[in-house]
Amino acid sequence: MASAEWSESPRTGETRSCRVWNIVTRIRQGQITGRGMNRGTQIPEALLNERDKKAKWYGIPVLLQKLYESSDPNSDLLQTHVFLKEISSLLSKEAMTFVTEDRKTAQESTFPNTYTFDLFGGVHLLVEILMRPTLTTEKNKPMSDDLIKDCLSILYNCCLCTEGVTKSLAARSDFVLFLFTLMTNKKTFLQTATLIEDILGVKKEMIQLDDIPNLASLVQSFDQQQLANFCRILSVTISELDVGNDDKHTLLAKNAQQKKNSSPSQAEINQATVLNIPGFIERLCKLATRKVSENTRSSNFLQELEDWYTWLDNALVLDALMQMASVEAEHSSTESSDESSLATSPQRHHLPQSMKIVHEIMYKVEVLYVLCVLLMGRQRTQVHKMLAEFKLIPGINYLFDKLIWRKPTTNHVLHGQNQNCDCSPEISMKIQFLRLLQSFSDHHENKYLLLNNQELNELSAISMMADIPEVEAVVNTDRSLVCEGKRGLLTRLLSVMKKEPADSSFRFWQARAVESFLRGVTSYADQVFLLRRGLLEHILFCIIDSECKSRDVLQSYFDLLGELMKFNLLAFKRFNKYVDTEEKFQIFLSQINSSLVDSNMIVRCIVLSLDRFESQTEDVKVVEVLSECRLLSYMARVENRLAFLFRLINIISVETLTQENVSCLNTSLVILMLARSKGKLPFYLNALREKEYAEKYPGCILNNFHNLLRFWQQHYLNKDKDRTSLENSACICFSYWKTTVSVLLSPDRTSPVAIASYIDEAYLDIDKDFMEE
């Protein structure tokens, strides 16, 4: 397959006139014949040799010429491999520098050898060599595994060290799909998976898993180690792409986008694809819950783990080391189906114990992430059923003390759910575990699987003592699928939560996970179960005594406190017992007022609870709490409720509404719905009007609120899930939400409950088209 151009390339010292080695002459000849140069290495060898030392190319262009000439598929490719190894030795040093140096320093460095390799068409040539067997019907001698591995390793090194290489490979969809076919070979799996992961990370359009040839049989052929690494690739293909622009995270933009693209996203299609692979979820559950060798050195384990991770930040790199340690055993045995064999294999005993543990931790991080994404997808019900059936929760409960939360971790920076981070494996493990618990418990009756049999019996006893019906989901829970041992997973989490350092950002994830257990229809038994374990006092200590400054942690604690106290007389009594001085109460109020976006859920809880308690004044216990509780007394004053209402409306607008702050709009609606139920809606609307004039901005608040409610109608009326969440959060049926918004938006300016009636004609601006771009 060598072209005429190559056959005419002169060797150094040849001067016969028939040889066209002058570069200018060659370019001109190419223009005339239409057979111009299309590779950097088609430059005459004499010129390359002449420039090599001055340009510090280290012979790479000439080696690429030889690589091309020797790579004819009809040859045995032995010589090709020799040239490839020579090139690899020149490039691998730069890749190792990138891996071992501080990333910021490495990215600012230059990698001349890799740059030269790409400049002279080396990347394109390796892709061509790898794909040649697929481009011809002729039967050629198969490439050796070692040759394929070296090609893939060089391509990965180029992706690391040379800007633009990864994107150029990602643009070749045929090559990306071809790479998946190489994963069937265990000997080339690691190199292939590493390269695919890097490419998919920059690919503009998400790959369609359905396009991968024989995907189901490919995945089923993976052993447990390969499947765990495949999860790193899956995580890119089943997660929604982060648009990276805060403006596009607004509900207005999201709704507009959903109207344009009403069909499922590619990520959702890919999620359905992997769920249809037989046995896939069951194997992930086994990976997530498989036990790790018990004979680990304990004292310096965490520090060792951190030290190794400073440069081993890729599970696939770590796999390569593990594979090297086990290579001597390959000829005599294949990998055991026993999941614990990986951690106990004698061939690996000369590796540091911390590396063996981090290996397993990195696997679980990837698996838990994939399960978490699937739990939040369209097939949530199907995934929930399978995770319960395959006993994921009892398995994780067993590992909690042994691996997931061996001991408290050092403080770290809080990362968003979709944010890439370079946390250590141990920290990543904890975050993914907490995210999984949050997704598993949120608005689903399977949340009771987080308890053991004794704890479920306790819930039943609480209901019986309160003379209320037992929660149906508790009665229907399959006891064979719940946690085993002395404590369930929720109780274990509460235990470590109370021991977490005051300034630890893990508090955010822990509070979110516990809050998800309480979300949904308010359950008195669930609340009392947690109150008995000191959760309320712990939250108040964090908010008041430790004077937490983190907005994220504060928000998660206020949300949790709102769910824990809502309608619960015992919770308000315990609150008043803890907040027993005016100084503590003022600190608590100060924390609420520091950011209503973060604290509005506790405001909603207090308003709703006050309204219910005021309707139960025939009960002496209720009257006692109403008269003694500082919190309820404070909210009972109408001027305080109006102050919250004014601020809640004033800090948001249609253009700034997000999933984070839309709760402010709904809390303001709760205040007005309760006012409407008592015939006081005109009083509240008039108070808002007076506030506008006092602030010398007539029409500002009410026009903004009118637009917010118009958006509310468009956002909620067609979203069943969001409607259910609203009903559960306030115990107010959605029809009442809907009619309240309707009367507030009435165009009748004579209506005493219509917003338009309280805006003077000169300041009326309620027809704004906020659905414009």
TrEMBL record:
Segments for region (Disordered): 329-349
A Pfam family annotated for this UniProt entry: DUF3689
InterPro entries documented for this protein: TRPC4AP
PANTHER family for the chain: SHORT TRANSIENT RECEPTOR POTENTIAL CHANNEL 4-ASSOCIATED PROTEIN (PTHR31743:SF1), TRANSIENT RECEPTOR POTENTIAL CHANNEL 4-ASSOCIATED PROTEIN TCPC4AP (PTHR31743)
Descriptive protein name: Short transient receptor potential channel 4-associated protein-like
Taxonomic classification: Eukaryota, Metazoa, Chordata, Craniata, Vertebrata
